[in-house]
Amino acid sequence: MNVADLRQDYRVGALDRENLDPDPIRQFSTWFETAAQCDGIIEPNAMTLSTVSPTDGVNARVVLLKGFDGEGFRFFTNHESRKGRQIANDPRVALSFFWSPLERQVQITGQARILQRGDAEAYFSTRPLASRLGAWASRQSEVVDSRETLERAMQAVQEQYADGEVPMPPFWGGYLVRPDAIEFWQGRPSRLHDRFCYRRVSETEWTIDRWSP
C-alpha cells in the first residue's frame, strides 16, 4: 500500500456564512445532533483532547464528551492521569471532532478547569457499575507490571464494594473547557474546503471569519 495514494474527494455538503448560527455553541449543537443521528458514526461524542507540558511536549488522546452548553464542553477522567497533571500545569487545551461520513470537523481551543465535585459526583453515579469500579482499580497513566495485576486490583474493589454502592474516588472528576475559539470545517471538492472560525470577544459576542482552506 502506498499511503500517499490514499485520498478522498469530499462532496457531501457545503457551509455558507449565511447558514451559520451567530452562537457557536448552537451551531455545534446542530452539527452534533446530525452526527448523533448518522448511522455511520458510532461515537459522535468521541473527541481528541490535546494538552501540553514543558517536559512531555504536546500529547493527544481520544476522550468522550459528556455534556456541553453555553459555559463550555465537559469530560471526566482521573485527575492524576497524565492529561490531568498536564492540565493542572497548563490549562490550555484543544478539542477536535471528526465526523467522517459527514465530512465535517470541529476544532475547539480554550482553557480547562476542574468541575465542582458535586457536579462530578452527579455524573459518576450514572456510570455503569463496572466503570465506577474501574475508576478505583486503575491508577491511570502509572506503570503496571502486568494485566494480571490490573485484574487483581479490579477484583479487590469488586469485593470492597460488593453492595454496589461505589463512591467517586477523590482523584477522579470532571473538567469544563471554556472555548476561546471554535472552527467549523466542511469538506469540499478539490480541497477547497469551507472553514469558519468563531473567536470570543466577550462573554456573549463572537466574531466569525471565513478562513482559506
Name some characteristics of this structure:
alpha+beta; nine-stranded antiparallel sheet; 213 residues
Q: Quick recap of the structure?
A:
The protein has 213 residues and is an alpha+beta fold.
Describe this structure in words.
There is one protein chain. With 213 residues, the chain is an alpha+beta fold. 24% of the residues lie in helices and 34% in strands. The chain contains five helices and nine strands, in the order αββββαββαααβββ. Strands 1, 2, 3, 4, 5, 6, 7, 8 and 9 form a nine-stranded antiparallel sheet that branches. It is globular and about 55 Å long. It starts with 23 loop residues before the first helix and ends with a strand. The relative contact order is 0.19. The model has no long low-confidence stretch (mean pLDDT 96).
Please work out how many helical segments DSSP would assign. Answer: 5
Low-confidence stretches: none
| Element-level helix/strand string | HEEEEHEEHHHEEE
Shape: globular
The percent of residues in helical segments reads 10-25%
Q: Gap between N and C termini, in Å? A: 28 Å
Summing up helix and strand content along with how strands pair, one would put the structural category as alpha+beta
How much strand content do the residues show?
Answer: 25-35%
Mind describing the biggest β-sheet? 9 strands, antiparallel
For the residues shown, what is the average pLDDT?
A: 96
Radius of gyration: 20 Å
Count of strand segments: 9
